[in-house]
Amino acid sequence: MSLTNDQILEALRRITLPDGGDIVSRDFVRALNVDGGAVRFVLEVPAEKGPAMEPVRAAAEKLVAGLEGVTSATAILTAHVANPKSAPEFENRRSSQAASRA
Fold first, then answer.
1. Residue boundaries of the structural domains of the chain
2. CATH architecture of the domain with residue range 5-101
3. Any idea what DSSP says for residue 87?
4. Tell me, what's the pLDDT at 29?
């Protein structure tokens, strides 16, 4: 029997968070890919939680790697600001380009 995304997500529900919930119910699991026995996924967390979530990432990767049928597991941790502002240098460059066209 080949692995499915649903089976992986069900297993990942066992990874609980210190502030409540689990990584699936909190919608942190992204880009889940099962290719034969190779499983890859991203944990996308709020920026302020980023560094503290490394042990959670490691636990999730270890849990998935131990599932029957999994030959390799890779979990990547990423943390983004919810609404990042444009980088000032990009805005300045865009403004100067527009001015040079005028």
1. 5-101
2. 2-Layer Sandwich (3.30)
3. P
4. 97
